[in-house]
Automatic annotation (TrEMBL):
Lineage, broadest ranks: Eukaryota, Viridiplantae, Streptophyta, Embryophyta, Tracheophyta
Signal peptide (residue range): none
Broad class of the protein's primary localization: mitochondrion
Pfam families: ATP-synt_C
GO molecular function, one term: ATP binding
Designated name of the protein: ATP synthase subunit 9, mitochondrial
Family membership: Belongs to the ATPase C chain family.
Gene Ontology CC annotation, any one: proton-transporting ATP synthase complex
Membrane topology classification: Multi-pass membrane protein
Amino acid sequence: MGAGAATIASAGAAVGIGNVFSSLIHSVARNPSLAKQSFGYAILGFALTEAIASFASMMAFLISSVFRS
């Protein structure tokens, strides 16, 4: 059960990170003069998305250790 939860969380984080960098590419293509500021926001979005993935993995390991028989 815990391994399945970790896999689902990892897939969600991968989709989220893809969306963050896809939005970065679109914003730089529209307005190249804001590339540095947009990159900073993209790194922040990447870090927050990755933090959610690591929290979900931690919860999955906790669930698997609690319900171990």
